[in-house]
Design brief:
The protein is α/β, with parallel strands linked by helices. It contains nine helices and eleven strands. The mean pLDDT is 95.
Length: 249
Protein backbone atom coordinates (compact mmCIF):
# COMPACT_ATOMS: atom_id res chain seq x y z
CA UNK A 1 0.00 0.00 0.00
CA UNK A 2 1.35 3.42 -0.98
CA UNK A 3 2.06 5.58 2.04
CA UNK A 4 0.83 9.15 2.42
CA UNK A 5 3.31 12.00 2.75
CA UNK A 6 3.62 13.54 6.23
CA UNK A 7 5.61 16.62 5.24
CA UNK A 8 3.31 19.44 4.18
CA UNK A 9 0.56 18.74 6.71
CA UNK A 10 -0.62 21.63 8.84
CA UNK A 11 -0.91 21.36 12.62
CA UNK A 12 -4.66 20.76 12.29
CA UNK A 13 -4.01 17.97 9.78
CA UNK A 14 -1.36 16.44 12.05
CA UNK A 15 -3.85 16.49 14.92
CA UNK A 16 -6.28 14.58 12.71
CA UNK A 17 -3.51 12.05 11.98
CA UNK A 18 -2.97 11.57 15.71
CA UNK A 19 -6.68 11.06 16.27
CA UNK A 20 -6.79 8.48 13.47
CA UNK A 21 -3.81 6.60 14.91
CA UNK A 22 -5.12 6.92 18.50
CA UNK A 23 -2.12 8.96 19.59
CA UNK A 24 -2.32 11.78 22.16
CA UNK A 25 -3.24 15.14 20.62
CA UNK A 26 -0.04 16.81 21.88
CA UNK A 27 2.00 14.46 19.68
CA UNK A 28 0.92 16.54 16.64
CA UNK A 29 2.97 19.50 17.85
CA UNK A 30 5.96 17.23 18.49
CA UNK A 31 5.70 15.89 14.93
CA UNK A 32 5.46 19.43 13.54
CA UNK A 33 8.57 20.41 15.50
CA UNK A 34 10.54 17.49 14.06
CA UNK A 35 9.32 18.17 10.52
CA UNK A 36 9.56 21.93 10.26
CA UNK A 37 11.98 23.11 12.94
CA UNK A 38 14.44 20.25 13.41
CA UNK A 39 14.37 19.07 9.80
CA UNK A 40 14.46 15.30 10.29
CA UNK A 41 14.68 13.08 7.22
CA UNK A 42 12.86 10.05 8.65
CA UNK A 43 10.14 9.24 11.16
CA UNK A 44 12.60 7.12 13.17
CA UNK A 45 14.53 10.30 14.01
CA UNK A 46 11.56 11.64 16.01
CA UNK A 47 13.09 10.34 19.21
CA UNK A 48 10.71 11.92 21.74
CA UNK A 49 7.84 9.95 20.19
CA UNK A 50 7.23 6.49 21.60
CA UNK A 51 8.27 3.45 19.56
CA UNK A 52 4.58 2.61 19.22
CA UNK A 53 3.84 6.08 17.80
CA UNK A 54 6.75 5.95 15.35
CA UNK A 55 5.73 2.49 14.17
CA UNK A 56 2.12 3.56 13.67
CA UNK A 57 3.23 6.63 11.70
CA UNK A 58 5.70 4.66 9.56
CA UNK A 59 3.08 2.10 8.59
CA UNK A 60 0.88 4.73 6.94
CA UNK A 61 3.17 7.68 6.24
CA UNK A 62 6.52 8.65 4.80
CA UNK A 63 8.12 12.08 5.01
CA UNK A 64 7.99 12.61 1.25
CA UNK A 65 11.19 14.65 1.02
CA UNK A 66 13.75 14.06 -1.71
CA UNK A 67 16.88 15.80 -2.93
CA UNK A 68 17.05 17.66 -6.26
CA UNK A 69 17.93 15.45 -9.19
CA UNK A 70 20.00 18.03 -11.03
CA UNK A 71 21.73 21.33 -10.31
CA UNK A 72 23.17 23.92 -12.69
CA UNK A 73 25.21 26.90 -11.50
CA UNK A 74 25.81 30.14 -13.36
CA UNK A 75 28.85 32.40 -13.12
CA UNK A 76 27.17 34.74 -10.63
CA UNK A 77 26.45 31.92 -8.19
CA UNK A 78 22.78 31.47 -9.08
CA UNK A 79 21.82 27.80 -8.97
CA UNK A 80 18.91 26.15 -10.74
CA UNK A 81 17.63 22.94 -9.14
CA UNK A 82 15.45 20.30 -10.78
CA UNK A 83 13.02 18.40 -8.55
CA UNK A 84 10.87 15.39 -9.41
CA UNK A 85 7.28 15.72 -8.20
CA UNK A 86 5.08 13.05 -6.65
CA UNK A 87 3.35 12.68 -10.03
CA UNK A 88 6.67 12.08 -11.81
CA UNK A 89 6.94 15.47 -13.50
CA UNK A 90 9.78 17.94 -13.01
CA UNK A 91 9.83 21.48 -11.66
CA UNK A 92 12.61 24.01 -11.25
CA UNK A 93 13.58 26.29 -8.38
CA UNK A 94 16.28 28.94 -8.50
CA UNK A 95 18.62 29.85 -5.64
CA UNK A 96 19.85 33.46 -6.00
CA UNK A 97 22.58 34.70 -3.62
CA UNK A 98 23.07 38.46 -3.42
CA UNK A 99 25.47 39.70 -0.73
CA UNK A 100 23.64 39.36 2.60
CA UNK A 101 20.46 38.06 0.92
CA UNK A 102 19.74 34.64 -0.49
CA UNK A 103 16.44 34.17 -2.30
CA UNK A 104 14.79 30.98 -3.50
CA UNK A 105 12.32 31.13 -6.37
CA UNK A 106 9.91 28.19 -5.97
CA UNK A 107 7.41 26.57 -8.31
CA UNK A 108 3.77 25.94 -7.48
CA UNK A 109 2.77 23.90 -10.55
CA UNK A 110 4.35 21.58 -13.08
CA UNK A 111 3.66 23.60 -16.21
CA UNK A 112 1.06 26.37 -16.34
CA UNK A 113 -2.24 27.07 -18.05
CA UNK A 114 -2.08 30.87 -18.05
CA UNK A 115 -0.62 30.94 -21.58
CA UNK A 116 1.55 34.07 -21.24
CA UNK A 117 3.31 34.54 -24.59
CA UNK A 118 6.68 35.45 -23.06
CA UNK A 119 6.86 32.46 -20.69
CA UNK A 120 8.61 29.19 -21.55
CA UNK A 121 6.58 27.30 -18.91
CA UNK A 122 3.36 28.28 -20.69
CA UNK A 123 4.41 26.21 -23.70
CA UNK A 124 4.27 23.08 -21.53
CA UNK A 125 0.63 23.54 -20.61
CA UNK A 126 -0.49 22.51 -17.13
CA UNK A 127 0.73 19.05 -16.11
CA UNK A 128 -0.49 19.23 -12.51
CA UNK A 129 -0.54 21.46 -9.46
CA UNK A 130 2.05 20.69 -6.81
CA UNK A 131 1.11 19.22 -3.47
CA UNK A 132 2.05 21.16 -0.35
CA UNK A 133 4.85 18.63 0.17
CA UNK A 134 6.19 19.20 -3.35
CA UNK A 135 6.16 22.97 -2.80
CA UNK A 136 7.93 22.84 0.57
CA UNK A 137 10.37 20.14 -0.54
CA UNK A 138 12.04 22.77 -2.74
CA UNK A 139 12.94 24.59 0.49
CA UNK A 140 13.47 21.65 2.86
CA UNK A 141 15.77 19.78 0.46
CA UNK A 142 17.69 22.81 -0.77
CA UNK A 143 21.43 22.34 -0.08
CA UNK A 144 21.64 26.04 0.88
CA UNK A 145 18.56 25.91 3.13
CA UNK A 146 20.34 27.45 6.12
CA UNK A 147 21.44 30.46 4.06
CA UNK A 148 17.96 31.39 2.84
CA UNK A 149 16.62 34.82 3.73
CA UNK A 150 13.70 35.07 1.29
CA UNK A 151 11.36 32.92 -0.79
CA UNK A 152 9.37 34.05 -3.82
CA UNK A 153 6.53 32.08 -5.43
CA UNK A 154 7.67 33.09 -8.88
CA UNK A 155 8.80 29.83 -10.44
CA UNK A 156 6.82 27.50 -12.68
CA UNK A 157 3.05 27.85 -12.47
CA UNK A 158 0.50 30.39 -11.23
CA UNK A 159 0.37 30.26 -7.41
CA UNK A 160 -3.25 31.46 -7.18
CA UNK A 161 -4.25 28.63 -9.56
CA UNK A 162 -3.12 26.21 -6.83
CA UNK A 163 -4.65 28.14 -3.97
CA UNK A 164 -5.32 25.40 -1.42
CA UNK A 165 -1.82 23.94 -1.43
CA UNK A 166 -0.11 27.33 -1.64
CA UNK A 167 -2.06 28.60 1.38
CA UNK A 168 -1.17 25.47 3.33
CA UNK A 169 2.49 25.98 2.44
CA UNK A 170 2.32 29.63 3.54
CA UNK A 171 0.66 28.62 6.82
CA UNK A 172 3.46 26.16 7.55
CA UNK A 173 6.15 28.65 6.59
CA UNK A 174 4.80 31.46 8.78
CA UNK A 175 3.36 29.63 11.81
CA UNK A 176 5.16 29.37 15.14
CA UNK A 177 4.79 25.58 15.01
CA UNK A 178 6.13 25.55 11.41
CA UNK A 179 9.14 27.33 9.95
CA UNK A 180 8.35 30.35 12.10
CA UNK A 181 9.25 32.82 9.34
CA UNK A 182 8.07 36.41 9.19
CA UNK A 183 5.62 36.92 6.28
CA UNK A 184 7.90 39.74 5.11
CA UNK A 185 10.40 37.09 3.97
CA UNK A 186 7.93 35.74 1.42
CA UNK A 187 6.55 37.16 -1.84
CA UNK A 188 3.87 35.66 -4.06
CA UNK A 189 3.76 36.71 -7.71
CA UNK A 190 0.54 36.38 -9.68
CA UNK A 191 -0.57 37.10 -13.23
CA UNK A 192 -3.80 38.37 -11.68
CA UNK A 193 -6.23 35.56 -10.82
CA UNK A 194 -8.83 37.93 -9.43
CA UNK A 195 -11.23 35.22 -8.21
CA UNK A 196 -8.67 34.15 -5.59
CA UNK A 197 -7.07 37.50 -4.82
CA UNK A 198 -9.33 38.55 -1.92
CA UNK A 199 -8.97 35.17 -0.27
CA UNK A 200 -5.19 35.40 -0.53
CA UNK A 201 -5.12 38.93 0.91
CA UNK A 202 -7.48 37.96 3.75
CA UNK A 203 -5.58 34.77 4.62
CA UNK A 204 -1.96 35.87 4.74
CA UNK A 205 0.33 38.85 5.25
CA UNK A 206 3.02 37.80 2.77
CA UNK A 207 4.03 40.24 0.05
CA UNK A 208 2.18 40.35 -3.24
CA UNK A 209 3.62 41.10 -6.69
CA UNK A 210 1.34 41.43 -9.72
CA UNK A 211 2.85 40.67 -13.13
CA UNK A 212 1.75 43.66 -15.15
CA UNK A 213 3.93 43.62 -18.30
CA UNK A 214 1.57 46.06 -20.02
CA UNK A 215 -0.93 48.49 -18.43
CA UNK A 216 -3.17 48.76 -21.50
CA UNK A 217 -6.04 46.26 -21.75
CA UNK A 218 -5.85 45.49 -25.47
CA UNK A 219 -2.06 45.19 -25.52
CA UNK A 220 -1.88 43.14 -22.31
CA UNK A 221 -4.54 40.80 -23.65
CA UNK A 222 -2.29 39.96 -26.62
CA UNK A 223 0.55 38.70 -24.41
CA UNK A 224 -1.37 37.58 -21.29
CA UNK A 225 -4.63 35.73 -22.05
CA UNK A 226 -5.66 36.04 -18.38
CA UNK A 227 -6.49 39.68 -19.19
CA UNK A 228 -9.64 38.42 -20.96
CA UNK A 229 -10.99 36.73 -17.84
CA UNK A 230 -9.55 39.09 -15.23
CA UNK A 231 -8.71 42.54 -16.62
CA UNK A 232 -5.92 44.31 -14.77
CA UNK A 233 -8.42 47.06 -13.91
CA UNK A 234 -10.43 44.49 -11.91
CA UNK A 235 -7.28 43.40 -10.08
CA UNK A 236 -6.43 47.02 -9.29
CA UNK A 237 -9.96 47.64 -7.97
CA UNK A 238 -9.61 44.71 -5.56
CA UNK A 239 -6.26 45.98 -4.32
CA UNK A 240 -7.77 49.40 -3.64
CA UNK A 241 -10.10 47.76 -1.10
CA UNK A 242 -7.15 47.00 1.18
CA UNK A 243 -5.09 49.29 3.38
CA UNK A 244 -1.40 48.64 2.72
CA UNK A 245 -0.17 51.53 4.85
CA UNK A 246 1.60 49.31 7.35
CA UNK A 247 2.44 46.45 5.00
CA UNK A 248 5.03 46.07 2.26
CA UNK A 249 3.43 44.50 -0.80
Amino acid sequence: MERETLYGKTLTELQAVCTELQLPRFVAKQIADWLYRKGVRSIDEMTNLSKVARTALSEKFELGLHAPEQADESADGTKKYLYRTAENEFVESAYIPDRERATLCVSSQAGCRMGCKFCATARLGLKHSLSTCDILNQIASLPEREKLTNVVFMGMGEPLDNMENVLRALEIMTSEWGFGWSPTRITLSTAGVARELRRFLDSTQVHLAVSLHNPFHEEREQIMPIEKAYPIRQVADILREYDFTHQRR
